[in-house]
Amino acid sequence: MRVITKRTTAMIACMALALTGLAGCGSKKNDAAAKVDAATASFPLQETVTFTALTHEPSFAGQEINDRLIAQRLEEATNVHIDWTVYVDDQFGEKKQLALAKKELPDMVFDAQMSQYDLLRYAKDGTIIAVDDLIDQYMPNLKKILDENPQYRALITAPDGHIYSFPWIEELGSGKESIQAVGGIPWINKAWLDELGLDMPTTPDELTEVLRAFKEAHPDGLPLSFVMNGGNEDVGMLLSAFGYGDNADHYVVTNDQKVVYTLADEGIIPGLEWLHSLYAEGLIDPEIFTQDYNTYVSKAASDRYGLFLAWDNTSAGTPSDYVALPPLKNEDGTACVTRQNAMGFEIGRCVISGTNPNPALTAKWIDQLYDPIQSVQDNWGTYGDETQDNVFEMKEDGTLQHLPIAEGVVPYELRMKTNLGGPLAVLDSYYGTYTTMPDDAKLRLDTISELYSSAMANDYNYPPIFFDIDTMDRITQIETDLKPYAESQKASWIMNGGAEQEWDAYITKLNEMNLQELLQLKQTGLDNYFASMNSEK
After folding, report:
1. pTM of the predicted model as reported, rounded to 2 decimal places
2. What mean pLDDT is reported for the chain?
3. Proportion of the chain in helix, strand, coil states, percent, rounded to 5
């Protein structure tokens, strides 16, 4: 169901009039905005200006964004009022597409969830506008970030040379020590290891013996569980000891900058056979192929797992009983970790519509969201709220310090109730300068730094490259068939075995599904990305 703000009904009627060329209340509403000269204006504006925005929120967060302290402070500081139309998260995609297709255009789409394809498609028909000139002229905060971090400028620049959206950037560590450098971490039950007097396993064979011991000592437990092809809950990290291993999207970049598809690398065959042997022996949870996330974490909450894979160990009933399993060594005795391609970056976080009466002033307002102190709050939440829990305390020196999360408070829910979201940037340089790092993030970063980063052989990962529409269409077309097939074979071999015997026929099938063309398209994109980065130096 659509959530209606106080002005939404009037807004829709006014836009309908505007689209038919009639003078209506929409033009009056934006008169103030249209008259402001963004080049000379400074915040707070002398006269209140209203912009309309389309966005979304979780159902638990409340739909009246202007009731939040962070929004009220921003309005006071700028004298810009935002008239929000808010949809519940799971309805936003459909409602947004419907509104844009009907040209029911707000001045901006906030938390827009627009893919590269969306940006190019909507830019082509004038639904949204290019913003590169606006960034250079009216957005000093964002321009400084892009000038000092050219990789982000490269990632948001379309093949035609224009920028069509404002990004979300959250740095937590960098390179091999970034928080996204690995996905699901294997968490092993240290309490069970200690109970049985077992050493921490360091190889697949040693881990097999540990899982056998877990099964014998805890027959009601589950020695190993994961969610098959389930992102951060997948078994990919344990396959790191075999060939290139595996990750969520199945692409790795070698140190000579070549793109490899992990599920087409024969080095993974022994890993799949090993996992099958564990499954056949009853050491793997039989529900790995069918369980959803909620079922998976509910079993973790009962401390039934000897080893499970997840972003962190907080879903366990007793998190302190579970510690990160060090990287397993391959047959040469080298500890290996497959690097992930995820990063704290989203391209289409906010766009300006083609009917916006003053794009320059809108851009100038959006730039306030890239101020470091504002971005930190936009991302996590705010301080000084006397009506509910706070994420931060504002120190005397003007910096923000994360507060301990009160008992019974879910961190994500508090964040979504008190932040603004949208376009922002939190850079590594901000920690210790403008803010502290969240405790849960620091624990994960410490784990990656201490255990996993040195075991990552790959110096590069595959970035979210901005392809042209034709290339995106072709990549999507190939992956739509190829990825599910490859993942289904991975699952089948873990359940039934046969990877070695069936491998050649499998590779033939992948090639018939245009694997080589896919890799060439991805390789060309990567080559162009590295070339653009080198040109920035």
Report:
1. 0.87
2. 92
3. 50, 15, 35
